[in-house]
Amino acid sequence: MAQEQARELPQPYTRQDLEALGPTIQKLMDIAGTGGLVVGVQRDGDDPWYWCSDIDPSQPGKHQQRCREYTMFPIFSLTKLFTSMCVARWLAKVSDHTDITWDTCVEDVEPKVNFRGGSLRRQVKIIDLLSHNTGMTKSGCYRGGSTGMLIDEKDYVAFINDQAAYRPANTEFYYNNLGYKHAGHILDQNNQGRKSHCLSGWSDILKRGYLLPWRMYDTSTEYPGSDGAYALEENHDIADGYHMLETGEPVKLEAPSADGGTGFAHASGGMYSCAEDLLGAYMKVKRAIQGRDDAPVEIRDPDKKLFTPQTPIEAGYGDYCLGLVKVEFPGRMGYIGLSKDLMTDKQMPVIGNSKHPLSVYYHQGSGTRGLAGMAIVPDLDTVVVVLSNTLALNDCADWVLQLVMSTMLGGPASQDFIKHATITKENNIRKHRMVRNTLNNGSKKPSSFNDLASCRGIYTSAGGYLDIEVEAEHGKLYWTKHRKRSWDTPAPDRVERFQLYHYEGDTFHWLGPRREMAARGIWVPKEEHYWVVTFHVEDGNVKGLTWLHDPHNPRSGKFKRVFERA
After folding, report:
1. Labelling 136: which of 34, 186, 391, 472 has CA 20 to 30 A away?
2. How far apart are CA 388 and CA 383, in angstroms?
3. Which CATH architecture is the domain 9-429 placed in?
4. CA torsion, points 228, 232, 238, 239, in degrees to nearest 10?
5. Rounded mean pLDDT of 467-471?
6. Preceding peptide of 330 cis, ω within 30°
7. Tell me: the pLDDT tens digits for 207-262?
């Protein structure tokens, strides 16, 4: 207690301090090529402060979208805290008549799921799904570009059963969206058949448990224009989605189709919201973390799970709770964003002041149509939200969040966020060039088949949840990733067709020019193996192909040729 009393907090930040950040925020946007961004900061009891991007009439050639605090953005992995709260609410409900707890084994609540890895079946608990502690492989095949998810919800069981153990459960932090996806699946499966006035799955628990009572008018469980999307109001200001070319030219991405995608990733990153709604929600979470009596009863966390560190991350980067990272400042943020891997030394800057140690909770999100970040600082009674509409040349939302946090916490004046943003932008561009040059400069050893047409056909994944169609046209080879479907029906709109470029032998790659990839909503700084496709030839006939999207689960990358095109 004496130590707590002796702790000195930073000097309270002022609105003038925040207003002074405007030019730097704009500079960070310009470096990244971000078209629209909103920053929200609120101290408990005060009015919120917002910084919103706007159209500059003096620069007609400059791309920037007018956004407001009520503009809806995809919030990607900021969804995870809400999913964790939904699981906590469900467990509180079922504890009255079942023995299901946070430590219940996953296979005991969803027997249809039979992970291929035996250790996953026997060891993974509900809490492991939400603390990135399952040891399960990530699988890189389910997420497309601007076309959305490539796995249909009805094929989910086949997909998840094809996942293997990358490392033993309960041993090490390994960020994985599939844990949250599976938590949402458990909520859906264990609430089927209930009366309409009862909670029935992830979406309904979220709506009735949080969006309605918290009056989150501009928050939706999926793209607001989708069939089945839920929000308290129908007329929304929705941010357009963009990807940015290295020239600074924006590429506007098409909105998700009317069916809202497959529903596959909603619980891990499918929500849409606005800065205004999120500030209100995170303020309630802050009060729950503080143990205040005015915290909403549904998130007072009597089991001490939601906001308690569960899985250590890396030294200096804190611990993962359930949908939040808790880090002691001075410390490093950004571990789960895109910036860390783009830093030259793979390390994020230290922010905070050693004279004023305190705890910070944060999370980040990224996806085809933007970037997001948030932070809760209980000691300063403050919450912060950053939302953007562009998958830019660096994680702009990350750098803006860290700029705001450093200002509030009295961090080292030596931190140059403009420099960090520039470095990560340049490394992003360099990564694509290096990987593509390597792939374009293979040995060019001839393939074992003389005619590209001999590769044409339909290839299906070993687990039977994803199809690939290979076509040959005018001396070029193309592949299209499809959701699993019947081939006597018209092709779905949401498909991805890319040219296959010869690498060497029977191996090709699909990493095209940056302009093409950006226009398709593809984040390109990935390792070489992700872009490589190898055909398997036996006795002169093509029998299958391998796409090693997840090297830790080779089986999931094997596709068998099941139908030959004439």
Report:
1. 391
2. 17
3. 3-Layer(aba) Sandwich (3.40)
4. -100
5. 91
6. yes
7. 888 999 999 989 988 777 665 555 555 557 888 888 888 777 788 887 765 444 44
